[in-house]
Design brief:
It is a single chain. The chain has 18 helices and 20 strands. The chain has about 600 residues and is of the alpha+beta class. It starts with a helix and ends in a 5-residue tail after the last helix. The mean pLDDT is about 95. The chain is globular, with a radius of gyration of 24 Å. Helix content is about 35%, strand content about 20%. The longest helix is centred in the middle third of the chain and has 22 residues, at about 335-360. It has a 6-stranded mixed sheet with strand order 4-7-2-1-10-12. It binds ligand BES and zinc ion. The site of ligand BES has 15 residues, from strand 17 and helix 4.
């Protein structure tokens, strides 16, 4: 046993690092490498095969893994075949602990297993549910604690593993992972992967389908279904520039390639930062490159999140807050200050709305969360994202960009491939930055206190001021001008309309600007919400229905279903949901089931 692993194991004893969302025992026995060998059966909706777990321990009596809805067939270790294992009680969303007894020389555990069709990480799509409607599709979503539904593992963000995989898929399909990836399909339908850098389990990801590869730059490319490939290459043309800008800000990109896969529309998130291969919703393919901040965001996670990872889900803001700040710095570098300010103002609106909904003095508005006994998904609000980013913005304004950038660069360099808790970050901040300042910057108020602190530095946008002017002119005399606005200006326009705007005004706006037929998902979704809240939706219910049936991105679904519910249209909401639900990933299903109190039986 090398000292390195003993040291590693001992760091897991600190109470600050206790992960309430994992049953695993890393302070006693640690998984360091995963070797997957799986076959995808699209008829049964099952992944089956085996996983080898390389473990590090010193005389531990057992290793405990996280599992949920898995069928474990056989567990072996070295010469010991068919080891007798035991299970903890099944617990909602956490799943079940799998206890595997160890002997002193246990090094590699082999588990033969199968996933179940209802595995929450996996979405098995029929051909009709894909964009091209030719072949079925499978993708995984691991964050926060779903990897345990397709791999028995230590499913904690504080535990890192390297991995290899061999995935067998039906002919005509290609498999890609958060690892080294193929550029072409092969006749055997067998794909091999390697992720050398250690990553937390929530970043292990797989997609299988009719996938093609299209190059963008020397280190960047897109994967997509054939009909989406050219559009995606056009949309993400600046990806290589983003990567270079990111490196100029905060140091070298340590994952070799940065590719994006554009998934079918049911993908429940805008984007997911799976290392080397961001998973993205097709709803950012707007045709005019206006929604690519999302790519900057997922790319930024290659530093904040993937290189330096939140040790527990209570520290989620260390992933997302830093990433939103970083995303806007990338966008500023590429498209200028005006552009970045618009993003920041829209983000502030989201923050205020979330603080209002959660409650100004509620503990869920703290950056550091307490998610013990709760589904970590509950903590995934705009607080972590926007309050986190605004906290860093406040620090930037105190120290100046160049000093603050140096601090962040050193932070990433000194913590690379490690995990960090909020307490550890505060200590690092005190020792490496705040010690240079005389005044108190109220770090505790920002991190451990509620609401938005007074010291927040807000952004102004001249472009948005013009949009607000246009709204007041419209209200005054009904006149509407042709506008050569960008997506973000239109969004600001729609978001700032009075929620109870009259039907005449809504009709005039819609016929003039064609919002109901917008091909831009952000504009359409904002307009549909406004339509529901103002009572205009009888006019565009067909478009709203088709949007909700086709798109599974939770960020769009939740506000629309909630608006229907809050305007006493719950019966309509349930009617639409009944036909859409089968198209959604488990992550979105859970949220909307809860929101609508929907009983699927
Ligand atoms: N890592 C998140 C997505 C996520 C968070 C998945 C929590 C599961 C649990 C990703 O980086 C993200 O933040 N996506 C955003 C887009 C972004 C531009 C704010 C999204 O999906 O909307
Ligand atoms: Zn993110």
């Amino acid at each position: 046993m090398c000292t390195n692993s003993i040291e590693k194991i001992s760091t897991y004893s600190s109470p600050d690092r206790k992960d309430h969302h994992s049953f695993s025992n890393p302070h006693e026995a640690l998984v360091t490498h995963i070797n997957l060998d799986l076959e995808a059966d699209f008829k049964q909706k099952v992944l089956s095969g085996e996983v080898q777990l390389h473990i590090s321990h010193e005389n531990a009596s057992e290793i405990i893994l996280d599992t949920r809805d898995l069928d474990i067939i056989k567990v072996s270790c070295n010469e010991r075949e068919n080891i007798e294992v035991s299970y903890g009680d099944p617990t909602i969303y956490l799943g079940q602990a799998l206890h595997i007894p160890l002997v002193p020389d246990s090094r590699i555990i082999t588990i033969e297993y199968r996933t179940r069709p209802e595995a929450a990480a996996l979405q098995w799509l029929a051909a009709e549910q894909t964009t091209d409607k030719k072949l079925p599709f499978l993708f995984t979503q691991g964050q926060a604690i779903l990897t345990r539904t397709w791999i028995p593992c230590q499913d904690s963000p504080g535990i890192r593993v390297s991995y290899n995989a061999r995935i067998k898929v039906p002919k005509e399909m290609m498999a890609v992972m958060s690892a080294s990836n193929p550029k072409e399909k092969n006749d055997q339908g067998i794909y091999e992967f390697e992720m050398k850098q250690p990553i937390p389990a929530y970043l292990i990801a797989l997609a299988i389908g009719d996938i093609e590869y299209g190059e963008i730059g020397p280190r960047t490319a897109v994967y997509a279904e054939p009909s989406m490939l050219e559009k995606s290459i056009y949309e993400f043309a600046d990806m290589e520039k983003m990567l270079i800008a990111a490196e100029e800000l905060y140091g070298p990109y340590l994952w070799e390639r940065y590719d994006v896969i554009v998934l079918p529309a049911s993908f429940p998130f805008g984007g997911m930062e799976n290392p080397r291969l961001t998973f993205a919703t097709p709803t950012i393919i707007a045709g005019d490159r206006s929604l690519t901040a999302l790519i900057a965001h997922e790319l930024a996670h290659s530093w904040s999140g993937n290189l330096v990872t939140n040790a527990t889900w209570n520290d989620f803001w260390l992933n997302e807050g830093f990433t939103v700040y970083f995303e806007r710095r990338i966008m500023e570098a590429l498209y200028g200050e005006d552009y970045a300010s618009m993003l920041a103002v829209l983000g502030y609106q989201d923050l205020e709305a979330d603080v209002h909904d959660i409650g100004h003095s509620h503990a869920d508005t703290h950056l550091k969360l307490n998610l013990k006994d709760r589904d970590p998904d509950d903590g995934m609000t705009d607080i972590a994202y926007e309050k986190g980013a605004y906290f860093l913005g406040m620090l930037e304004s105190k120290f100046g960009k160049s000093r603050f950038d140096k601090f962040l660069t050193e932070y990433f360099e000194s913590h690379k491939f490690q995990t960090i808790t909020t307490t550890e970050f505060v200590e690092y901040l005190n020792n490496n930055l705040l010690n240079e300042l005389d005044e108190d910057v109220n770090v505790n108020e920002w991190i451990y206190g509620p609401g938005i602190p007074e010291s927040v530095i807000k952004f102004e946008s001249d472009k948005f001021a013009k949009v607000e002017k246009a709204i007041s002119v419209f209200y005054k005399d009904g006149s509407l001008l042709d506008q050569d606005w960008t997506t973000h200006e239109w969004l600001h326009f729609i978001r700032n309309l009075a929620p109870d705007l009259g039907m005449d005004e809504m009709t005039v706006l819609d016929s003039r600007y064609q919002f109901s037929n917008s091909g831009n998902s952000e504009i359409a979704a904002a307009w549909y919400e406004q339509s529901i809240r103002s009572g205009y939706f009888a006019e565009n219910i067909d478009q709203i229905r088709s949007f909700l049936v086709n798109v599974g991105r939770r960020k769009f679904l939740t506000p629309l279903y909630r608006a229907l519910k809050e305007t006493d249209n719950i019966a309509l909401a349930k009617d639409i949901y009944a036909s859409a639900r089968n198209n959604y990933h488990a992550v979105s299903v859970q949220t909307i089931d809860d929101l609508l109190d929907f009983d699927s039986k």
